[in-house]
């Protein structure tokens, strides 16, 4: 049986509260340009806001002016989204804690071995991650190529998780592979 072949994330849609709450968070805090809005064609009592998360794809939010911000953690149950993660540059990542503190927004910072993360919640309790890889992907490769090779090295070495040494060695291996193919 043949597989369907996806080619990346097209868009993500979340259920929000009000139009202004969505704009304040997604554009005002996270800097995602507000692209346009139109009625939700599948549910006439909702509006549909479109934001650019930075890669030209879309994050959309269904809003309704009769709703209020949930202001509680979103459910973490089977079938629910645990969190949404967005890429940020290293320069931006280093500024996140101070900028969130200025706004009185609670957050949690984590070192994930191959990346750093800051977690916060949107006004409706959905967990949002701002993530920054610890490596620069060589030209002609994808982030996934580096991570797959780093994982292979980690497993071969019996290490607990991917760390800086695995990333550096993975990049070195990929560049050596490219050099061998060029000759």
TrEMBL record:
Protein name: Glyoxalase
Family matches, as Pfam families: Glyoxalase (PF00903)
PROSITE patterns reported for this sequence: VOC
Domain annotation VOC: ranges: 8-133
Taxonomic superkingdom: Bacteria
InterPro entries reported in the protein's UniProt record: Extradiol_RC_dioxygenase, Glyas_Bleomycin-R_OHBP_Dase, Glyas_Fos-R_dOase_dom, VOC_core
